[in-house]
Design a protein that fits this description.
The chain has 361 residues and is α+β, with helices and mostly antiparallel strands. The chain has 14 helices and eleven strands.
Length: 361
């Protein structure tokens, strides 16, 4: 309970950790790395191995010996499981040991690498380079064989400088292409969203078809296109700077439109029966949020920042998200907001129309 916002933010960002582990299990002596239990789908990657004082790249067929020290990267739970299997945590920092290995961040910007999994690309076998981390939208992902790369992913790789350079050419590593706004895919996605939102959908038991509208249609299309990633040379990606500008501009326009539409009747609403309805609305909105907030915090032990984004998303309330982001100085509320908001918005659009149609029938 005494954790500060900065500490919570650091804990959230620290999804992947590094650990130096000494091989002390005699049963693993002479065994290839790929046959060590818990590796693979656990998301843990062994990037370097130190044998007899020399550091080398860790390959699947690299044989381990008692006394070797490996540098493992992955989720905390996976690292703890690996440590219990192979040995003990070592005080020797493999990264500081002398050797030709280095690490570098590589941007995925080449269309040939998009949509392919780590297993398909196999950078370790083709280039002698190990991928230890994947960062997507400032969220670190564990490196699993079936993880598929998307445009804008940042890979942390370990290997010799020449091998890393060959990998960079293969994956693109173009900051200019990353920061270039994809205008045609953006407007094409909006157009598809308008079409989908205008398409009537028949629901059993509802006397008339419902529509997702200009809110639900573009949202649903954006989710689908984001999942697809790219179609040929069309990349459904928006740079962070452009994303932030559109986000802030959208919130400002939203608040301005609300003020222009309701401002001339604001005082009349407060002095008339509208105040009573506003109080009813506040209670209906506030009570469920308080119940969910206490349950998520006390029972589910959800951190404060994701909780703020989740509550804002459950209300489909962009101003609340903007306030949470400015208060926490973190993107954690935006991540949880993006998780809750799509389902809430779609249910809100469909349920509202369904209720009206059922009452009128």
């Amino acid at each position: 309970e005494g954790e500060t916002l900065a500490a919570l933010d650091a804990k959230l960002a620290e999804r992947l950790r590094t650990m130096n582990i000494e091989i002390t299990n005699p049963n693993l002596n002479g065994l290839p790395l790929k046959e060590i239990p818990t590796l693979g789908q656990s998301g843990v990657v062994i990037s370097r191995i130190m044998h007899a004082g020399k550091v080398g790249i860790a390959r699947g067929n690299t044989v381990v010996h008692t006394g070797d020290v490996v540098l493992a990267v992955g989720p905390r739970e996976g690292l703890d499981d690996l440590r219990l299997v192979v040995g003990v945590e070592s005080k020797v920092d493999v990264r500081s040991a002398p050797g030709d290995l280095t690490s570098r961040r590589i941007l995925v910007t080449k269309p040939a690498a998009l949509g392919k999994s780590i297993r398909e690309l196999d950078p370790l076998a083709r280039f002698g380079v190990t991928v230890t981390r994947i960062s997507r939208a400032e969220v670190e992902l564990p490196v699993k064989p079936d993880t598929r790369l998307q445009f804008g992913d940042t890979l942390v790789v370990v290997g010799e400088p020449d091998d890393i350079q060959e990998l960079a050419v293969e994956f693109g590593d173009s900051l200019k292409r990353l920061n270039h706004p994809q205008i045609i895919p953006l407007f094409l996605g909006i157009a598809l969203g308008v079409i989908v939102g205008s398409w009537p959908v028949s629901i059993p038991g509802i006397p008339a078809p419902v529509k997702l509208g200009l809110a639900g249609g573009p949202l649903l299309v954006a989710i689908i296109l984001s999942r697809i990633g790219n179609i040929g040379s069309l990349v459904w990606y928006m740079p962070s700077s452009a994303n932030m500008m559109v986000r802030e501009l959208g919130i400002a326009l939203f608040l301005a439109c609300v003020g222009l539409k309701s401002g001339d009747q604001f005082l009349a609403t407060l002095t008339g029966p509208g105040l009573t309805w506003m109080m009813y609305g506040a209670v209906i909105t506030f009570v469920p949020l308080v119940i969910v907030a206490f349950f998520a915090r006390l029972v589910l032990k959800l951190n404060f920042m994701p909780l703020c984004g989740m509550l804002a998303g459950s209300m489909t309330d962009p101003p609340a998200l903007a306030f949470a982001g400015s208060m926490t100085h973190s993107d954690a509320p935006s991540v949880s907001y993006a998780t809750v908001y799509p389902l809430t918005m779609l249910l809100r659009v469909v349920a509202g129309q369904a209720m009206v149609l059922l009452v009128m029938s």
